[in-house]
Amino acid sequence: MSLRAHESYGQHGLTPVDRLGVWLSKRAIHRHLPSRNDLEVLELGCGYRATQLIALEPILKRGIGVDFQISPELQTLEKFTFHQATIEETLPKL
After folding, report:
1. Is residue 83 part of a domain?
2. How is the beta sheet containing 39-44 ordered, strand by strand?
3. 48 inside domain
4. Distance between the two ends of the chain, CA-based, in angstroms?
5. Is-above-0.90 flag for pTM?
6. Is residue 78 part of a domain?
7. Which CATH number does the domain housing residue 53 bear?
């Protein structure tokens, strides 16, 4: 799967291999996080659907995602803030 510069990972759906990768990554990340439910996470290059960031929702107080393209439906999630821009444009605003 090749991405164009203006597209985000997952913008055209996730393959079964992608979904397995998200699940395995979530397990690995959980092993290194503190046992609390008030974490604040910033994911740079979160992808169109912010799959990995959303998977951490149960342990997050707040999540921030940054990518070129963000699914409009993610903008309604309470615990999350998404910035549809480049990392360079977004970091000074955070």
Report:
1. yes
2. 39-44, 60-67, 80-84
3. yes
4. 31
5. no
6. yes
7. 3.40.50.150
* Dist. CA 31–CA 88, nearest whole Å: 30
Please state the domain count of the chain: 1
What tokens were used for 71? 């699914």
DSSP E strand stretches across 18-93: 39-44, 60-67, 80-84
DSSP secondary structure code for residue 71 in this structure: -
Can you give the residue range of the structural domain that contains 63? 16-93
Can you give the pLDDT at residue 30? 77
Residue 1: pLDDT over 70 = no
Say how far apart CA 45 and CA 82 lie, in whole Å. Answer: 11
- Tell me: the pLDDT tens digits for 12-66? 676 777 777 777 777 788 787 777 778 899 999 998 999 889 988 988 999 999 9
